[in-house]
């Protein structure tokens, strides 16, 4: 039996395996370190960071929906400086790639964060231009190709790290957004962030989320995510990290076949803290069954 | 490393209308449980998120849960039959702190909030404990509390059992009679707010267990944030699942 | 006890109750007539019609997804003339409103169909500018506000019937699309049509649908649908028919609270052919419990 | 009016590896069943769509289904225990047509496609019937067929039972020996295509039951379309669920 090689190389960004965890679903790794050996995860995208500390939105911040959940955390985080001082050293112990997910209200803020983080040991930046849970910035950047291009280009100029741009699915044409990010200088694209959704309590007649609407994630969104990954990978020449509702290895393989070079697991961590390891083993099993020796052999191999 | 645990349901009985006592196997990894901790339970394949349920009591071979049928998930849980397996994460949360030095304590529970107090009361053995239990109409777990504490008082809103009115009325009486060194409380927010007010008025320390909607249950997702008073900045955002669900009564800032 | 009045009046379009069935999920009524008394349904939107007969897409045309389904029927239908001759007379026996869902490849086709159907006994036209399952026309019209305005206006000029415009959810800003439809002369807006999704068979490595992608419907999309209904009803002054994942009365009430004047049931019919009757009874029960005597009393009553 | 029917599971036994025979209560509304009709079954809350499953046999008080565990839904169905309720729609579809005048018939089933043929064979009593059953390796239902027909031949692909090879090989032999007036077939597409080819070659009429992914099961949604030859336009699109699943073998145009 030939040895299976799980390493992936996303245009210079090398991971020991293609299974990463999605921003906002894994904190700064501490909590899940009790459940999973973080050394076994391809990369960890940390909770979305902002320049200054943010307290996030009022609660309730979560609604369960049919095979999905809506969150409106609103980027609660201790700020980039705190992250660098108190969380990065912790994460750096582990042999995994660290992706800093950054969020700004203005292009300047994004650039400032990129500059600051470029001087640290993080391995990559993930430009989140798609968070639906904040008033200014966030999703506003993500739905307009010109803005996507502009913010990507500006950050690119201030960024000495591998630059991932994370796309919002709440758009009419995800292809043009992906192209804009590529043209702006992104090294990689990640998608999808959450769809905007709302849930209403019919007894109180109020939205369940204090904020009204929030970001839908989980299995419910998987068909949309797979479609968007397929569309984007057809039109860009940079690697893509696919995510949205991945619960098991079979879901992950759908994303690889659609064209993703790596995948990211979000909501599923909440249900099974060890899910990344199950997915990893499942992918290996699939590769063995199909006779693949490395992941690249079936990335984008959709027969269509 | 920690993991999900699969525990067999050993017993499930309806102890009051819509209230179920479910005993599950205490598998090996379910160790060092503190009173006030909870489990995050996967109900079935059709419901994505886990449901937080307090550990009500712990025995050598089993763990007792007391669950109120309220929505989709708890309906599924309350229908679990003996022999079925439950997929649980836990024990989670901080649990109640018991201080050797505090001798006179009052324990107040409202409705399903009485559940986690049972294990607490077991562990308060040797202290001078008053237990106050409040219900809408039908009491439950009262006998179980009486196994450990002589002084158990019950209030029901409609007067069908014990004191007619709110349990916080009993609390005021109790505290006036013989002030306490620590108050432990769990129940609906409205009750906890009142407990907070009374404790502050009578200058008694308290530990209250609060509820917030959760996803991960382990502290990673930040959906369960609770506002508490903080030294420096006035307020601080903490995680109900990891930093709580038990907080010092003085510090919690309730929604208004 | 005061009598509960289930009638709704959508700016002149009167229905005996606000529970309608969604185009493409109820055929021309014949099949479900064995299960439900069609006289009890507020309105029936028939299978999407085209000017000429269409054979639709190759099979497989359906994928189950987590709490959803993706279809790629591709507007299989016998053509508008056949409909008028053979299906409309059947449907006209029933005391329910008949909505003809029309689909064109060009604005001219839409107008032609509007003209033809305006001479018949159908009660309303539903302009489907959002079908994701056809190559030309369809969704292309639905994602561009200018096109939405143009096609609506042209059809309006050729349409002697109540005109409903059905919106696609695959857009960056549903509000501007809704406004465009209103400005174009729509009497009413219905939403949402399906989200575009894809499912892949990891063993064959092919898309499960012969067409690759298709339209996602069912409970999975409900949070997105409720959010969009909320957004659109905030900015338009015409009535809105809400749909997307409604499975029971509680789902329906969410849409009413969000602002819908009537609701439409699609995928749920496949699971429970009598679901419309269950929903109707459930809404009545809710109204009784809350002390409402007519539906309008809680339309848009979201406390937010 | 028709409605969903809730039928109790009376028995569930694994009759071959991954093949389950499930008997459900024949509730009052489950009347006038034709051989070849199917039920559209809701597996559980976690799976949205129903699953089409043929009626394998009908008794006075019960209906037999034979199900192969293949994906999520059939796994759930095959795990149903005695006493659980099944939510079914049906009987659906057209079923096989039996013509008094046809005396010599051949019935061919492949794998799980043998299931609906059992009731058919029961109803062919009195005719000269040959039953040919094909399996990958492990046969099932053979005894059941033998209760009604003496001439039952089995083929397995690996030769572990009966003829080694495809059931269509037995079919060619049978038709050569003693041509038939009607051939009934159900099985994988590849087998049906071969049956179609052979029938056309030997000019024998056939009825074949085909599979297509479904949603409504009643003819309303048009996801289950099948292409058939038509007089006028050459081809016609019909609904597998309502106009089928049984079609005349000559008319079906398979995907290529
Ligand atoms: C730390 C903690 C301990 C708890 N202990 C118990 C216990 O011992 N016994 C008991 O009966 N109940 C307990 N609860 C409440 C219990 O979690 C909810 O009743 C349950 O989640 C409701 O789920 P459902 O599916 O039945 O209701 P639904 O309303 O259908 O639930 C929808 C969503 O809202 C969440 N939700 C609804 N109500 C609550 C609530 N009160 N608190 C948190 N989330 C909620 C659910 O978890 C789910 O995600 C506890 C809650 C917390 C936070
Ligand atoms: C008219 C008819 C009669 C049938 N009778 C039987 C029977 O008696 N016994 C039996 O074991 N099987 C029968 N089948 C096949 C059975 O419907 C599928 O095996 C079953 O739907 C698979 O569901 P799943 O959830 O286990 O698989 P999954 O692959 O998880 O299903 C995913 C989706 O694809 C659909 N699907 C997958 N395979 C098939 C298939 N072969 N045909 C139709 N839809 C499919 C499912 O219904 C579901 O919507 C019949 C199919 C049809 C069309
Ligand atoms: C609770 C929660 C918080 C999230 N926070 C962030 C965030 O801070 N930054 C970000 O880019 N994405 C965030 N996301 C989006 C996820 O990273 C991911 O894109 C999305 O959830 C889809 O994947 P999933 O379906 O596997 O969860 C968050 C998602 C959840 C559920
Ligand atoms: C099988 C199927 C066919 C459909 N065909 C049409 C159509 O012809 N015209 C149309 O406007 N919408 C069509 N739709 C969309 C529905 O009318 C509805 O907008 C959508 O399914 C969302 O509602 P639901 O989640 O309740 O199904 C179709 C949906 C399904 C599932
Ligand atoms: S539930 Fe995730 S942090 Fe508390
Ligand atoms: S499954 Fe709906 S028409 Fe056949």
From TrEMBL, chains A, C:
Q: Where is the active site?
A: 131
Q: Quick check: keyword Chaperone in the entry?
A: no
Q: Where is the Dihydroorotate dehydrogenase catalytic domain?
A: 7-286
- Entries under CDD domains matching the protein: DHOD_1B_like
Residues binding FMN are 23, 47-48, 101, 128, 166, 192, 218, 244-245, 266-267
Per the entry, the cofactor note is: Binds 1 FMN per subunit.
Q: Which cofactor does it need?
A: FMN
Subcellular compartments = Cytoplasm
Q: Which SUPFAM superfamilies match?
A: FMN-linked oxidoreductases
- Uppermost EC category: oxidoreductase
Q: Which UniProt keywords apply?
A: Cytoplasm, Flavoprotein, FMN, NAD, Oxidoreductase, Pyrimidine biosynthesis
Q: What pathway or pathways are given for this protein in its record?
A: Pyrimidine metabolism; UMP biosynthesis via de novo pathway; orotate from (S)-dihydroorotate (NAD(+) route): step 1/1
Q: Which GO terms describe its cellular component?
A: cytoplasm
In the Enzyme Commission scheme, what number(s) does this protein have?
A: 1.3.-.-
Highest taxon above the source species: Bacteria
What is one Gene Ontology biological process annotated in the Swiss-Prot or TrEMBL record?
Answer: 'de novo' UMP biosynthetic process
| A molecular function GO annotation | dihydroorotate dehydrogenase (NAD+) activity
Q: Which PANTHER family does this UniProt record tie to the protein?
A: DIHYDROOROTATE DEHYDROGENASE (FUMARATE), DIHYDROOROTATE DEHYDROGENASE (QUINONE), MITOCHONDRIAL-RELATED
The UniProt entry's sequence similarity note says: Belongs to the dihydroorotate dehydrogenase family. Type 1 subfamily.
**Name the UniProt record assigns to this protein:** Dihydroorotate dehydrogenase
UniProtKB/TrEMBL annotation, chains B, D:
Cofactor detail note: Binds 1 [2Fe-2S] cluster per subunit. Binds 1 FAD per subunit.
Gene behind this protein: pyrK
One of its Pfam families is NAD_binding_1
Record keywords, A-Z: 2Fe-2S, Electron transport, FAD, Flavoprotein, Iron, Iron-sulfur, Metal-binding, Pyrimidine biosynthesis, Transport
What protein name applies here? Dihydroorotate dehydrogenase B (NAD(+)), electron transfer subunit
Q: Which HAMAP family does the entry mention?
A: DHODB_Fe_S_bind
Which NCBIfam families does the record associate with it? PRK00054.1-3
- Where along the chain is [2Fe-2S] cluster bound? 216, 221, 224, 241
Give the record's family classification. Answer: Belongs to the PyrK family.
Domain FAD-binding FR-type spans what residues? 2-98
User: Which residues take part in binding FAD?
Assistant: 51-54, 66-68, 73-74
Q: Does the keyword Chaperone apply?
A: no
Function description: Responsible for channeling the electrons from the oxidation of dihydroorotate from the FMN redox center in the PyrD type B subunit to the ultimate electron acceptor NAD(+).
Subunit structure and binding partners: Heterotetramer of 2 PyrK and 2 PyrD type B subunits.
Pathway given for this chain reads: Pyrimidine metabolism; UMP biosynthesis via de novo pathway; orotate from (S)-dihydroorotate (NAD(+) route): step 1/1
Its needed co-factors are: [2Fe-2S] cluster; FAD
Q: Which GO terms describe its biological process?
A: 'de novo' UMP biosynthetic process
| UniProt KW Acetylation keyword | no
The Gene Ontology terms for molecular function here are: 2 iron, 2 sulfur cluster binding; electron transfer activity; flavin adenine dinucleotide binding; metal ion binding; oxidoreductase activity
> Which InterPro entries does the entry mention?
Cyt_c3_hydrogenase_gsu, Dihydroorotate_DH_ele_sf, Dihydroorotate_DH_Fe-S-bd, Dihydroorotate_DHASE_ETsu, FAD-bd_FR_type, FNR_nucleotide-bd, OxRdtase_FAD/NAD-bd, PyrK_electron_transfer
Output the CDD domains linked to this UniProt entry.
DHOD_e_trans
């Amino acid at each position: 039996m030939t040895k299976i090689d799980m390493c992936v190389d996303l245009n210079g960004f090398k991971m020991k395996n293609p299974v990463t965890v999605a921003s906002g679903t894994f904190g700064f790794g501490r909590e899940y370190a009790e459940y999973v050996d973080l050394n076994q995860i391809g990369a960890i995208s940390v909770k979305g960071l902002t320049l200054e500390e943010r307290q996030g939105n009022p609660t309730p911040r979560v609604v369960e929906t049919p095979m999905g959940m809506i969150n409106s955390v609103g980027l609660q985080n201790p700020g980039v400086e705190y992250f660098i001082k108190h969380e990065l050293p912790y994460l750096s112990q582990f042999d995994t790639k660290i992706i800093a997910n950054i969020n700004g209200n203005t292009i300047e803020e994004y650039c400032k964060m990129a500059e600051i983080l470029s001087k640290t040991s993080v391995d990559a930046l993930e430009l989140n231009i798609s968070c639906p849970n904040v008033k200014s910035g966030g999703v506003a950047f993500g739905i307009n190709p010109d803005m996507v291009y502009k913010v990507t280009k500006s950050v690119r100029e201030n960024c000495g790290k591998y630059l991932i741009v994370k796309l919002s699915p709440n758009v009419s044409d995800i292809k043009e957004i992906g192209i804009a990010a590529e043209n702006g200088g992104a090294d990689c694209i990640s998608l999808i962030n959450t769809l905007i959704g709302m849930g209403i309590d019919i007894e109180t007649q109020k939205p369940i989320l204090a904020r009204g609407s929030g970001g839908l994630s989980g299995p419910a969104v998987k068909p949309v995510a797979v479609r968007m990954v397929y569309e984007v990978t057809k039109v860009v020449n940079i690697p893509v990290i696919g995510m949205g509702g991945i619960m098991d290895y079979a879901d992950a393989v759908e994303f690889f076949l659609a064209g993703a070079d790596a995948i990211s697991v979000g909501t599923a961590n909440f249900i099974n803290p060890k899910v990344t390891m199950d997915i990893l083993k499942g992918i290996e099993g699939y590769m063995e069954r199909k006779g693949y020796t490395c992941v690249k052999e079936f990335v984008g191999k959709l027969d269509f | 490393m920690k993991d999900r645990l699969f525990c067999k349901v050993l017993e499930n009985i309806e102890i009051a209308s819509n209230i179920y006592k479910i005993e599950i196997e205490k598998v090996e990894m379910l160790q060092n449980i503190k009173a006030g901790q909870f489990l995050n339970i996967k109900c079935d394949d059709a419901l994505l998120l886990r449901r937080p349920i307090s550990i009500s009591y712990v025995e050598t071979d089993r763990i007792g849960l007391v669950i109120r049928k309220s929505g989709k998930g708890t309906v599924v849980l309350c229908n679990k039959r003996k022999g079925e397996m439950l997929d649980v994460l836990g024990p989670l949360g901080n649990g109640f702190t018991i201080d050797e030095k505090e001798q006179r304590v009052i324990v107040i529970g409202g409705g399903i909030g009485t559940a986690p107090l049972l294990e607490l009361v077991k562990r308060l053995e040797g202290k001078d404990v008053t237990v106050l239990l409040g219900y809408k109409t039908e009491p439950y777990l009262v006998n179980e509390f009486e196994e450990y504490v002589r002084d158990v008082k019950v209030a029901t809103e409609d007067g069908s059992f014990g004191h007619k009115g709110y349990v916080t009325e009993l609390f005021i009486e109790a505290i006036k009679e013989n002030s306490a060194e620590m108050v432990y409380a769990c129940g609906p927010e409205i009750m906890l707010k009142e407990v907070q007010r009374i404790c502050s008025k009578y200058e008694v320390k308290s530990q209250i267990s609060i509820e917030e909607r959760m996803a991960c249950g382990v502290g990673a997702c930040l959906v369960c944030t609770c506002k508490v008073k903080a030294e420096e900045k006035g307020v601080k955002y903490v995680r109900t699942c990891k930093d709580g669900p038990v907080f010092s009564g003085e510090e919690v800032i309730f929604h208004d």
